Amino acid sequence: MLVQDRATPKSSKPSSPPLILPSSHHGDHRRFAPAKSLDFSTWAFDNLYKILAVCFLAATVAALFFLRSAGDTAALLCFDKTRSASSSSSGGGIPYPRISWNSVPPIKPLDPSASPYASFRSDRWIVVSVSTYPTDSLRALARTKGWQLLAVGNSATPSDWSLKGAIFLSLDQQARLGFRTVDYLPYNSYVRKSIGYLYAIQHGAKVIFDADDRAEVVGGDLGKHFDLDLVGEAAAPKHPILLQYSHADPNRTVVNPYVHFGQRSVWPRGLPLENVGEVEREAFYTEVYSGRQFIQQGLSNGLPDVDSVFYFTRKSSGLESFDIRFDDDAPKVALPQGMMVPVNSFNTIFHAQAFWGLMLPVSISSMASDVLRGYWAQRILWEIGGFAAVYPPTIQRVDKARLYPFSEEKDLHVNVGRLIKFLVSWRSKKQTLFEKILHLSYAMAEEGFWTEQDLQFTVAWLQDLLAIGYQQPRLMSLELDRPRAKIGHGDTQEFIPKKLPSVHLGVEEVGTVTFEIGNLMRWRKYFGNVVLIMYCSGPVDRTALEWRLLYGRIFKTVIILSEQRNPDLTVEYGQLAEAYKYLPKVFNKFQGAEGFLFLQDDMILNYWNLLQADKEKLWITNKVPESWVSVSTEGKTSDWHVNQGTLVNQIVDKFPVHFQTSYKQSTTEGRLIICGSEIFYVPQRFVGDFIDLVEIIGDQRIHHKVAVPMIFLSMDAPENFDSSALATVVYKAGLSANDSFASYYTANVPAIYPLKVHHEYDFVKLIRVMASGDPLLQELV
């Protein structure tokens, strides 16, 4: 799922009240005051308040200069922060929102005439997003005793959606609720659940189960799996002391809870990839009193919450469905302050004290939204003395063998490790919970974890919570800032997790896991912000998904061009003879990308051999003699070469002087440079030049093999290319029909040409030979 384009959100700032002049200013203009005496004592008495104001101002300025001259940075910190926030509003950065918390007008439920559920109230709510007609799992959720199911629609939801026992909020109904947050939500996304959370809170919720329409509650009773009654001494006997991960290692900031529940070779979506190799059981646990686990994450049997790296690399076949089981008897386990765990949006209990943490970010990819929310919420949870806990299997989810969008997890694999470190180190001196939430959201926007849009969304969310009567929990001192108690032998508890059987090619050796994922991490880190543009000359209906499966694990995203346009497979139209003319559109779409790698489908990329290439320079096969040739345009030359040479000369003469000079200094008059141009790389700093040159070419029919080297030589001199990046490409131009790809493929070069992939069987053969360089590929076939 992609976050859809949406209209610019309305400002969430309260409007300024109209200026009201004092009534004395509206007196009779014909009335004049009597002349005043010029006696000094009388004047001083009449102007005493002005004299005091001037003296106070002078004293303030003097104190300010004194503090600044004394170098007391701490004394001026608040002033500097305010000043920087003010200056940022004029273009120096992200402006810090200012909210009048005490003047937020209330939002009342709809009138009973407008909604049959206006006066309905319930303590316990299940909130789901629905895009299709009700599933059997959803029907079962609607029958869960003691719970009210709330289904939140989006633009893909059928207009006649209904389910007995459920309250359904269509887009039209959501818009009429009066919430500020609705202006920021994409139309076709599950993050519209944020409206559902507010609706449930407005209608009496004390506990919210965040679920999806595939969740089947084990045994049909949520109370048997989660702790639903936390508040009050009467609940204390029901909840014994919890096991808690040890805080002995202050550098350990995130854990894989699946190890505790018997599946140590499985990892949850949102776990930093550098941590998946940590598969050893805990040396010991500590304990914590139950009652403040305001966020409770349940596990899912069948298809657990795993990322696309696991999903793609741990299946023995594309048709196989996961059926992973966790230990039902393992004890629930809590997280101490300073340690986090991935939290999702389809199997999680939120208690009222953590309702503020339900907000789903809107400016990041949908597959990352709930995970970043979970980390953000856990950090704020520490400010009220709460913690998250992980529970044994609570639901069953069936794997429908749907394609997991790797590119939609880019915000996870690139940023999540850095985010966790940032959150653990973040501190705030704000005085209320909502002020701290706003402060953290601002800091995350400043650090680039989400955008200013989510900062404004936070403002709207907090105002909506106040408007529906939500009471902010009381702040507590942060344990992280207090000396940690030394863990003695009597304070430790031991639990040995089971090693449950797996049907997913589980890897048990720490070294193997670390090696496999370590390689993937290095490749992803290098290419994670590079867009791959593939031109497919083969049948895209049989190969497009396979190419995305192969390369989507590595690159920011994979854009496919073909003469066979296919909107269902997101394949754009393009002609190979002029493929370069379609690139500016892609460049403009991904302006934040580090660079763009063009690749034809008959050029196979060994991405693992490009980690030493310079991503700030141009790459092309100018050092591969079979690919880069210079031909004469004079004498006995083909008409095509003469025509292309003439067009090149005409176009170059129209280039601005710097492009024209660069090209002519790198070529010989009367000769034409031709390059196969099956593979080349354009860094972001040359994108503007590339676009300008393509615009100058315009409608002229310069072939791709001629235009690309012309553009490259115009943008920069060959000695400035990273010519070594592709210098060892294997390029077999004159192969016979009997030549096998396996006979000349090698994993030790950056790319090999040619190989035709026409259907799935060709792709399987390709994957098997490429697995010698990337062993994880063995598990894709």
UniProtKB/TrEMBL annotation:
UniProt keyword Methyltransferase present: no
What InterPro entries does its record include?
Answer: STL-like
Indicate whether Aminoacyl-tRNA synthetase appears among the record's keywords: no
What is this protein's name?
Glycosyltransferase STELLO1
Record PANTHER family: EXOSTOSIN DOMAIN-CONTAINING PROTEIN-RELATED, GLYCOSYLTRANSFERASE STELLO1-RELATED
Where is the signal peptide, in residue numbers?
Answer: none
Origin species, per record, is Musa acuminata subsp. malaccensis
What keywords would UniProt list here?
Answer: Membrane, Transmembrane, Transmembrane helix
Protein origin, superkingdom: Eukaryota
For the region Disordered, give the residue spans.
1-28
Q: Name one GO biological process term.
A: plant-type cell wall cellulose biosynthetic process
Upper lineage: Eukaryota, Viridiplantae, Streptophyta, Embryophyta, Tracheophyta
